[in-house]
Structure formats: structure tokens, C-alpha cells
């Protein structure tokens, strides 16, 4: 009886694992970076919107982390689209525009780091820089991400 239950259960588990993304693949690496960017930017936005207590040290550290992350995922976009990518084909067909938007994000995160260096760090000082980063992310998603 136990064997009748265990074998189908094991088969189902093995088959469900086949649909995942290899974390060492370019797709897996950039998804992990984008997820880290999202969590970091959500923390920054949460501090400005009152969902999280504003902590100037943590804010500045997260601004720096986001700036460092913003330069990384682009290297993991291969020359041809992968099967499981949620990016539109335009990423590969309009690479100059995609690169321009990636560069814009990096400029916006650099500006956020600079704004975060102003002491004492005040939410109203960094709020426009966070908004600019969020707008940059949204612009790229509208053009290149398939939802």
C-alpha cells in the first residue's frame, strides 16, 4: 500500500521539478538579480511611504545596493531568447533601446546614491530620486516585459 502511494508521489515531485529555471543559467541569474532589485527597491519605497520605519543608514545602504545591482542583470541577456524568458522578443530585436533604458536605470540609481549621501538624510530629499528609479524600471517593463 505504501509503495502504491510513494511511487506516484515521487513521480509527481520529479515532474514538477522539471519546470523550474536553472539558477546557474543566464535566465536564472538575471531573474535572481531582478528579484533582489525588486526587494531592495520595495524596502526603499516602503520607508518613504510609511510601510517600514525610515532608517537613514539602512536607506543609504539599500540605495548603494540597488545601484550595484542595477549594473548586473544586463550581462545575462544572451544573443537569443530563451524558451522560459518573460521578456518580449523586442529585447533582442531592439537591443540599442534596451541598453539605453538599462543605462538610464543605472544613472537614476547613481543619483539616488548621491541623494542618500546628503546628511542628515531626510525622506523628502530622496523621494524624487526613488521616484525616478521607479519610473525608469516601469518604462523598461512597459516596453520589454511580457506580463
TrEMBL record:
<dbReference type="InterPro" id="IPR002321">
    <property type="entry name" value="Cyt_c_II"/>
</dbReference>
<dbReference type="GO" id="GO:0005506">
    <property type="term" value="F:iron ion binding"/>
</dbReference>
<dbReference type="GO" id="GO:0020037">
    <property type="term" value="F:heme binding"/>
</dbReference>
<dbReference type="InterPro" id="IPR010980">
    <property type="entry name" value="Cyt_c/b562"/>
</dbReference>
<feature type="signal peptide">
    <location>
        <begin position="1"/>
        <end position="19"/>
    </location>
</feature>
<keyword id="KW-0408">Iron</keyword>
<dbReference type="Pfam" id="PF01322">
    <property type="entry name" value="Cytochrom_C_2"/>
</dbReference>
<keyword id="KW-0349">Heme</keyword>
<dbReference type="GO" id="GO:0009055">
    <property type="term" value="F:electron transfer activity"/>
</dbReference>
<protein>
    <submittedName>
        <fullName>Cytochrome c</fullName>
    </submittedName>
</protein>
<dbReference type="GO" id="GO:0022900">
    <property type="term" value="P:electron transport chain"/>
</dbReference>
<feature type="binding site" description="covalent">
    <location>
        <position position="140"/>
    </location>
    <ligand>
        <name>heme c</name>
    </ligand>
</feature>
<keyword id="KW-0732">Signal</keyword>
<dbReference type="InterPro" id="IPR012127">
    <property type="entry name" value="Cyt_c_prime"/>
</dbReference>
<feature type="binding site" description="covalent">
    <location>
        <position position="137"/>
    </location>
    <ligand>
        <name>heme c</name>
    </ligand>
</feature>
<keyword id="KW-0813">Transport</keyword>
<keyword id="KW-0249">Electron transport</keyword>
<feature type="binding site" description="axial binding residue">
    <location>
        <position position="141"/>
    </location>
    <ligand>
        <name>heme c</name>
    </ligand>
</feature>
<keyword id="KW-0479">Metal-binding</keyword>
<dbReference type="GO" id="GO:0042597">
    <property type="term" value="C:periplasmic space"/>
</dbReference>
